[in-house]
Amino acid sequence: MSRAVVIGAGLGGVMAAAALSPAVDEVIVLDRDELPDGPEHRRGLPQGRHAHLLMPGGLDAMEELIPKVSIREHLLATGAREISLSSGMVALSPEGWFHRWRHDSHNMITSSRALLDWAVRTAVMKNTGNVGIRTAQVVDLTGDARRVRGVRIGTSAGPDVLDADIVVDASGRGSRILTWLTALGITGIDEIRVDAGLVNATRIYRTPPGAEDFPLTMVQANPYLGESGRSAVIVPIEGNRWMVSLGGTRGGEPPADPDGFLRYTLDLPHPIVGRLLSGAEPLTDVFISHSTSNSRRYVEKARAWPDGLVVLGDALATLNPAYGQGMSVAALGAQALGRQLARTDLSAPGFSRRVQRAAASVVETAWSIAVSQDSMYPGVRGGKRTTVDRIAGRYTRRLTKTATGSYVAASALWDVTGLKSGPARLLHPATVLAALGGPSLPPLSEPPLTPRERELLDSLDTTSGEGAPSSAPV
Length: 474
Description:
Blueprint: E1 3-7, H1 11-20, E2 26-31, E3 52-54, H2 56-65, H3 71-77, E4 81-84, E5 89-93, E6 96-97, E7 107-111, H4 113-128, E8 131-135, E9 137-143, E10 148-154, E11 160-163, E12 166-169, H5 177-184, E13 191-194, E14 199-206, E15 216-219, E16 230-237, E17 241-248, H6 258-266, H7 272-278, E18 281-282, E19 287-289, E20 294-297, E21 309-311, E22 317-318, H8 326-343, H9 351-374, H10 387-403, H11 407-417, H12 429-437, H13 451-460
Parallel strand pairs: 1-2, 1-12, 2-8, 5-15, 12-21
Antiparallel strand pairs: 3-7, 4-7, 5-6, 9-10, 10-11, 13-20, 14-17, 14-18, 14-19, 15-16, 16-17, 20-22
Helix pairs in contact: 1-4, 1-8, 2-8, 6-7, 8-9, 10-11, 10-12
């Protein structure tokens, strides 16, 4: 009987299990945490209490990996929200406010991370039949430098061996993969870390009456000022609630006290987030997290790679959560595994290496986006911009400015940041021409709100007009 073992029952591990399910008789997912029966936060997800976005590319990958059910419809049925980047978002970028467009496109899913993990896990368990989840701590891998043959798990009676035809490490940011590989005789794998010192602060609010359809509202950090990056986002989530996440890089960290939390939002380049929050009812305290650095293990470049082992998700690369791409990268990595399984038997020599290289190409786009931005903030550790980075950065900045008032440019930008397309999409002739021509619409001096949204903002604002200019309509 063929067996796959997946280390980690987070989103990446569950999606890897979905990819493996059609190819083996049994998939065993191991996690050191006792998983909750419902959408509840668990200790093993350090960023679990903060805002998460399931980007269009990640959603597409999930739909492919769980063909018996529409994961989109399943998530919406459990209470998640669907947001259009083109029409359902109000965003202040470093280059100005994005216009909103009348047609919906580039839809993403928003919810608490607890709900999303639980909903995806239940969908996979219900629609596979051969996936099981066990609570266990993996101690190390078994096998040698040529082939991994299973895992060793800790038990009350001592270590026990679980044999497998393939092992997938999706154990997250704290993966011990490099230690395990060293024990097998595989060394020399580069690991790069870029840390801008980002601190996340999140608080949950009750959605104010009448604001149920208020757009996702975001003030992005600006890396071009030579100052600490500061940002805020209001994300609608299940249960008629707003999840509000603040982010600040080294020297601009958001505070943990409620008064400071609100003041931070009002002191941003535009106070729209603070004005909305000032009249909203808080439901929780402020949650703080520091686990935000970018870290990448270049296992795909190892001189020798054992058959029977694949590394995916945060175990392969962790990304600054400010860019909202981690979950989608994990899903796309699992999709790369599933597509390789559809072409080649997992016992074929070199199978694992081919998957690893495909997964690395998925990581590259998101890694470049995160690191190119984070490396510009003061006090960054590990980041160093090259001449190529600076040239690409100038073009990206010009394209972003164009995208604030050009749907052609905005669509290209969202295709890449939403992980539906690779960076080559930004060099499509139509995109380049749009960037050269600049925005077709005039810049906005205020957020693009409808009259009804503007009225709601004014009714919620209790800041007595402090730093609170009126908002212009769409």
